[in-house]
Amino acid sequence: MRPLSKVGNYISTRIGRAIQDYKLIEDKDRILVAVSGGKDSLTMLKLLVERKKWAPVSYELIAMHVTSDYGGELEAKKRLRKFFKENRVKYYFENIKILDRERGVNCFWCSWNRRKALFLAADRLKCNKVALGHHKDDIVETLLLNMLYHGEFAAMNPRQELFGGKLVIIRPLCYVEEDNIRKFARESGFPVTSCRCPNSEISKRRKMKDFIRKVEKDCKHVKTNIFKSISRVKEEYIKIR
User: Fold this and answer.
1) Among candidate residues 182, 174, 141, the one with its CA nearest the CA of residue 14
2) 99 falls within a domain
3) From 128's CA, which of 81, 166, 169, 235 has a CA 20 to 30 Å away?
4) Banded pLDDT at 162 (limits 50, 70, 90)
């Protein structure tokens, strides 16, 4: 197995910082890693496996890919199965139904069912944590989406306890920008599965990506600034009756 590249080491370092800041991985953790087949989840799994060799704590990784009745899954499963075996990680495939004959593919329904499948699998496999591949861009975009479309100041937590702490969601890539992940996935030759969602190019999240890209022309640190704002709330200036 070849050593990590410069960008691979950079991402791994950022993962390490997130783990330390938020206590994402602790000794004896049994972690279910959600692998969609995209660049984000493959990068996360690859680097968590790599870090496991020398990490100061012992933890176990189990990869989970949730398939659906939307179609085009057979080839994706074949590529992922090879990837899992090459990285010597336990893996499972879980199938769900998301198609609605009347409304087609509904984003909320799809996301809700995939998350439910992961939670049930974590319980069945006795995993105390579920790792999701959301990165810094995802968190920033979610914050903007909630502010603009829902009137809420809410994003994604790097560490989120559910069911009274019985299960913990972790996001090891929370400090990593998408461009770095894209570069690492490309140079690593990952078997990336293309998004088959018919709504991906017209979604509100796509609009947030375009908005941030435009603002970056004037402020290159816009993503970092928005990300930092989540933990730098000045309550005395935002109290409104």
Assistant:
1) 174
2) yes
3) 81
4) very high
